[in-house]
Design a protein that fits this description.
Blueprint lengths: L1 H6 L3 E4 L2 E4 L1 H13 L1 H4 L1 H15 L5 H22 L3 H4 L1 E6 L6 E7 L2 E6 L8 E2 L1 E3 L5 E3 L3 E5 L6 E7 L2 E6 L8 E3 L1 E5 L7 E6 L5 E5 L8 E2 L3 E2 L11 E4 L2 E3 L6 E3 L2
Antiparallel strand pairs: 1-2, 3-4, 4-5, 5-6, 7-8, 9-10, 10-11, 11-12, 13-14, 14-15, 15-16, 17-18, 18-19, 19-20
EC number: 5.6.2.1
Pfam family, one: Zn_ribbon_Top1
InterPro entries: Topo_IA, Topo_IA_cen, Topo_IA_cen_sub1, Topo_IA_core_domain, Topo_IA_Znf
Amino acid sequence: ILTTIQERKYVVKDKGKFKPTELGFIVNELLIKNFPEIVDVSFTAKMEAELDEIEEGKKLPLETLTAFYEVFNQALKQAEIKMLDVKRKGIETEIRCEKCGAKMIIKIGKNGVFLACSRYPSCKNTKDFVRNENGEIVILTKETEEICPECGRPLIKKQGRYGVFLACSGYPECKYTASVTLNIVCPQCGLGKLVKQISKKKKIFYRCSRYPQCQFILWNEPIAKSCPHCGAAFRILKKQQLVCLKCGYKEKYS
């Protein structure tokens, strides 16, 4: 099951824990709305009790499966008719468009998910967003203090298929883009800085901002805390411990 939900991109593994992707949030919301009885925790408890009765010979397996299938089949038929076409219509949120006041909806595009005004095409306002630890939508603050080196306009944060990146606010006239760095200098080349990325298999990793010139990659989160043993500028988080890549020194992370 854990392999399946990763392969289907419902979750990514971050710091040794599973974190739902936006696709995971969407699928979960659709299941709760269209199959409320089946995804309810009380349903699992009821099924476990019935399986115990089958094991004890108090119930017949076919009788239990038939009763379940009758309810599930009806819910499935209703879902085929009523379930929202997410790709075409999107999912409505309570966030209001600051340009026209209409509700924003979650849309799925070729580069990932984003918020769009429900009055499109009359209003073309869009926003990038992420989810916080409670699953709440947090709109990315677009404009940054950084300046585009090619045209002098402010750089803005955007959400792409492989994570957050910087882009010129003058797009499409200026197509400059850059990675959002962690302000940790690459230990291999000493010139680039480490950036957080998401692989095609939806796994989080960290690489040098000078890629492909520098091929340095980490699969554990780098923490900007110097090593007290050898003085290395950062350490990695591994199984709730800070580990120094240079000398191997370990200590509990709090």
